[in-house]
UniProtKB/TrEMBL annotation:
One of its GO terms (molecular function) is ATP binding. Keywords: ATP-binding, Membrane, Nucleotide-binding, Transmembrane, Transmembrane helix, Transport. Residues 202-221 are annotated as: Disordered. The gene is Abcc1. This is Abcc1 protein. The chain crosses the membrane at residues 20-38, 44-62, 127-149, 155-176. Gene3D superfamilies: ABC transporter type 1, transmembrane domain. Residues 8-184 form the ABC transmembrane type-1 domain. InterPro entries: ABC1_TM_dom (IPR011527), ABC1_TM_sf (IPR036640), ABC_transporter_C-like (IPR050173). One of its GO terms (cellular component) is membrane. It comes from Symbiodinium natans.
Length: 221
């Protein structure tokens, strides 16, 4: 029980704060990009607001499903590694007792479950990336059309708005991926809470070793 608990503490100490910091950095970069587009082309303010709303709705619908898929991949990957390590360490016992077919069948089952979870996770990521590409392409088209229609457009500001419009898709994808990974790492918090609620080994042994005192009544002759 100590090893998983130490791993969960390592996740809380190092990985989770790093993921949250990267997500906040992506939020700041995305907000800066939208602000730069609006400042360079004020006529794109309604389109930028609509784009931000669409990205927020898309991320809101994608994040819970992606977090569950990432947790599923993490949960199903553990039995694969544990089973393969046990088979390698105890291969002579498997050969002695003729349990090789059973071990191979179990390994194939856990590998299939892990592969299905990874395929689902990759499919979700690609579908989300496609939707973000469509939204980013629409924003880039609006910026380009607005610049072309403006007769007195400044070349420097137009190039600035186009440059930031090209980075919107990547920033939104990084933001949602970091937030999804942070949400998936919150499973470590749940495991720590579950482990902290378990009774200690001393309490369990004391309850098991404590004899049952039976009281009886009788007269001594």
């Amino acid at each position: 029980m100590r090893v998983p608990k130490l791993l969960d503490l390592d996740v809380l100490d190092s990985r989770l704060p790093s993921l949250l910091a990267q997500a906040l950095a992506c939020v700041a970069a995305l907000f800066s990009a939208l602000t730069a587009i609006v400042v360079s082309s004020p006529g794109l303010a309604p389109m930028a607001a609509l784009l931000a709303l669409l990205m927020w709705l898309l991320a809101k619908s994608y994040s819970p499903v992606a977090a569950d898929a990432a947790r599923m991949v993490s949960v199903l990957n553990g039995p694969v590694v544990a089973h393969l390590l046990e088979c390698v360490e105890s291969r002579e016992y498997l050969r002695t007792f003729g349990q090789q077919p059973r071990a191979v069948a179990h390994a194939l089952c856990v590998l299939e479950a892990s592969a299905r979870a990874q395929i689902l996770n990759m499919g979700l990521q690609r579908w989300f990336a496609l939707q973000l590409e469509l939204i980013g392409g629409a924003m880039l088209l609006c910026v380009a059309v607005t610049i072309v229609l403006q007769t007195d457009a400044h070349l420097g500001m137009s190039g600035l708005s186009l440059t930031y419009a090209l980075t919107l898709t990547a920033l939104a994808k990084y933001l949602v991926n970091y937030s999804t990974r942070s949400s998936a790492q919150m499973a470590s918090v749940e495991r720590l809470l579950a482990l902290s609620g378990l009774p200690s080994e001393e309490e369990v042994h004391s309850k098991v070793e404590q004899p049952d005192h039976e009281t009886g009544t009788g007269d001594l002759a």
